[in-house]
Automatic annotation (TrEMBL):
Record domain HTH araC/xylS-type: where: 124-222
Transcription regulation found in the keyword field: yes
SUPFAM superfamilies: Homeodomain-like
Entries under InterPro entries matching the protein: Homeodomain-like_sf, HTH_AraC, HTH_AraC-typ_CS, Tscrpt_reg_AraC-type_HTH
Name the UniProt record assigns to this protein: HTH araC/xylS-type domain-containing protein
Length: 222
């Protein structure tokens, strides 16, 4: 028994739950390795260990199922059923510990895959929203509300895959659109700034020069 729990203590530890959320494989493996040493020292009951693994499967499946990817969830269910039968067939503590390592390794792979799939899907939604609304005022708050995603998650996914912030991307896109207006239309700089959703022509002018190195008027003359 560890820390007063008959079953695996780490099932109830918030810190371990956080490690699963961020998929910190190295730290999870370190904890499992130490846990296995302790179990061997105290000669942990085989049936208690078996129950622990059943519980862990439930915890891991619940986390991964949040991805709501029907195809991959079907594969995950097949994996769960196979592990369930293998847990039942293990004959000693060593076999159960070896299986525990395999379970965490396989489910960690699921988490990594799901996070990439989810990120790509989310990124595509964000980009589509930006491009469809580029000729209007766009804020991170607007994107968050329209797509029902948190601002920190949007920022994290976008920076991770695009290499720049959401607002930097939007401003660059707006200025590229402004270049087209400046060279193909006779609309005034004020009109262009209004079309592209800037607060005023002054804000537009400062942004344009910051990104291009020249003023909008100079760019049009060129």
């Amino acid at each position: 028994m560890i820390e007063g729990f008959i079953s695996d203590y780490f099932i109830f530890v918030p810190e371990f739950d956080a490690l699963l959320d961020i998929n910190n494989i190295s730290e999870i493996n370190r904890i499992i390795e130490n846990k296995h040493k302790y179990e061997l020292e105290v000669e942990k009951n085989i049936e208690d260990k078996r129950i622990d693994l059943f519980i862990w499967q439930g915890v891991l499946v619940r986390k991964i199922s949040q991805a709501k990817n029907m195809v991959m969830n079907t594969i995950m269910h097949e994996t769960y059923n196979k592990f369930y039968q293998r847990i039942k067939s293990c004959r000693n503590l060593k076999e159960l510990q070896h299986l525990e390592n395999e379970i965490f390794s396989v489910y960690s792979d699921f988490v990594i895959y799901y996070s990439e799939v989810t990120d790509n899907y989310t990124l595509n939604r964000i980009l589509k929203h930006i491009h469809m609304n580029i000729e209007s005022y766009i804020s991170l708050q607007d994107i968050s509300e329209d797509l029902n995603l948190s601002k920190p998650y949007i920022s994290l996914v976008f920076k991770k895959h695009m290499g720049l912030t959401v607002m930097d991307y939007i401003m660059n896109l707006k200025i590229n659109r402004a270049k087209t207006f400046l060279t193909t239309t006779t609309q005034s700089i004020m009109e262009i700034s209004q079309i592209l959703g800037f607060h005023d022509s002054s804000h537009f002018g400062k942004t344009f020069k910051k990104i291009t190195g020249v003023t909008a008027r100079e760019y049009r003359k060129r």
